[in-house]
Amino acid sequence: MGKKLTATVIIIAGLSSFKGAAIYDAFRASPAQAKAAEEAEPETVAESEPVEQSGAEAAPATPEELLVAIAMERDRLAQRKQQLDEREATIALAQSTLDAKAAELTALKNELDHLLSRSVRENTDDVARLVDIYKAMKPVQAATIMNEAGIEVAVLVLSAMEPRNSGPIIALMQPTRARAISTIILERSRLPGDQKLVNITLD
Asked: N or C: which end of the chain has fewer CB within 10 A?
């Protein structure tokens, strides 16, 4: 306890001596030096003052401002989602319409193919019946009819006949018409670009 008291007394005495020395130095200073010290003191204080923050720096957001910003962002995302949902619904509707049109066109194509096949089959059957009819006739009778029949019918029937049946009929037909039918039958076997069906005289 005595040692602690002695140390305290020594510290107080030292502080008193330091303070007294400072007061003595101040008294010893000349008036000019005192004035200069007074003028220099504000600068020291000014230098030691903390620099104020400029107004350009943004203040930290408050919790209320953060909540408002989050709410605005949530609304923006909800609006964007609604736009995407509407666009997706429009695309789905367009796709459904296209699928329906495609199915309708497919059904129509199948129906047309069926009708065409039936037409070809029926036409083939009709030609076969005509061929049988003309084959049952005498060549002179068939030639007389062929001279008056349409060129399409004559070419169709005679080209479908076997040569042993069509030959005698063509031989008894009018020469000009027989040549025209022979030329048409020959050109039909060629490609469309190679066919030469001009200047054909029927009579």
From this structure: N
Neighbouring CB atoms inside 10 A of 184's CB total 19
- Cα separation, 141 vs 131, in Å, equals 14
Q: State whether the Cα torsion 180-182-183-184 is positive or negative.
A: positive
Residue with tokens 């609006």: 79
Q: How far apart are CA 91 and CA 40, in angstroms?
A: 80
Tell me the whole-structure pTM to 2 decimals.
0.41
Q: What is the separation, in whole angstroms, between the first and last Cα of the chain?
A: 158
Question: 């054909």: which residue's tokens?
Answer: 200
Name the CA dihedral angle for 28, 31, 36, 42, rounded to a multiple of 10 degrees.
90
